[in-house]
Every structure is written in structure tokens, then in C-alpha cells.
Amino acid sequence: MIIRPEAPDDVATIRAVNEAAFETPAEAALVNALRGQVQPFISLVAERDGRVIGHILFTPVEVVGDEPWAALALGPMAVLPELQKQGIGSQLVHAGLQACRSGGHDVVFVLGHPTYYPRFGFRRMSEFGITCEFKAPDDVLMVTELALGAIAGRKGEVRYHPLFKTV
Fold it and tell me: Domains in the chain, please, with CATH?
């Protein structure tokens, strides 16, 4: 298996992977809507034998507080249902976080499963005094520092691109 940046020929397959992995087509529609609308747009695929079997996306967020600051958010992340629980998602997360780090980004947020994402260094946003515009249980609102101390002294409310509310 290889993990690589998405290519133009992957767009339809990425949509199909997201549609298969989630209960509704909302995540697939969101990925398509964000493409070309936001920068950075870090979109990676997992490919096996020439077939795209997984996808992960990172897009910008703004943290609004006394001094607004920018970060990235992970999501969605999808693996074909028949191939889940085989480590593909973990490899996508590791590769994605490395791509974020390589791009000079030092903080990544996720609204995700509370027993899955901590293995990648994610901790509750509330531990840092950070909130989110989306109302969700505290244990699913998480953040990780890609550089030690990147959040030090920073607080605020995480705000996603408006498409996250309309798609």
C-alpha cells in the first residue's frame, strides 16, 4: 500500500470511498465542496494495487480569541468498509500529520472518536482552554501539537470553514 497526495483522476474514487465509509453522502459532498475553495487542502489517498481504498483530508480552521490564530482540522477520514480495522486509517493519520508538519503547520484539530485519535497524540481541546463552534461532547473535541508547545498561551474557539455547516 502507498499513501500519496490526491490526483485529479482520484476525485470520483475519493467520493465513492467517503460515500461507502459513512452513513450519508454528506462527508463526500463536503470534500468535493471544499476542494478548490480552501488552502491548504491536504488530501491524501491510500492506494493498494492501483485502487484507492482510503482517504484523509486536512483543511484550515481559525481559532478566534484575544489573538486569532490559524490551524488545520483533520476530517473526514475514510476507509472502504470491507478494509477497515486493518491499520489503513492509522497509516493515513500518520502520513497526514507528517504532511501537515512538513507544510509548516503545528496544530491540528479533530472532532473524532475518543478512543481512536489519542493514539496519535490528540488530547481534549478543553485541556488547553480551547472550545469549538460545534456543540459536541468534550471527549470528541481534540487537538494535537505537531511542534512541542505550539499551543502554549493560545486559547479561543475553533471555527471551521462555513461549508462545514452548509453541506
Answer: 2-166 (3.40.630.30)
Query: Cβ contacts of residue 22 below 8 Å, gap of 6+?
Result: 28, 76, 78
Q: What is d(CA 158, CA 12) in angstroms, rounded to the nearest whole number?
A: 30
Q: Angle of helix 26-34 relative to helix 11-21, nearest 10 degrees?
A: 150
CA dist., res. 112 & res. 118, Å (int): 10
- Contact predicate 35/28, CB 8 Å: no
3-state class of 21 per DSSP? helix
3-state secondary structure (DSSP) of residue 18: helix
In sign, the C-alpha dihedral spanning 110, 75, 94, 87 is: positive
User: Could you give the angle at the alpha carbon of 163 between the alpha carbons of 158 and 167, nearest 5°?
Assistant: 125
Encode pLDDT of 79-120 as tens digits: 999 999 999 999 999 999 999 999 999 999 999 999 999 999
Question: pTM of the full predicted structure?
Answer: 0.96
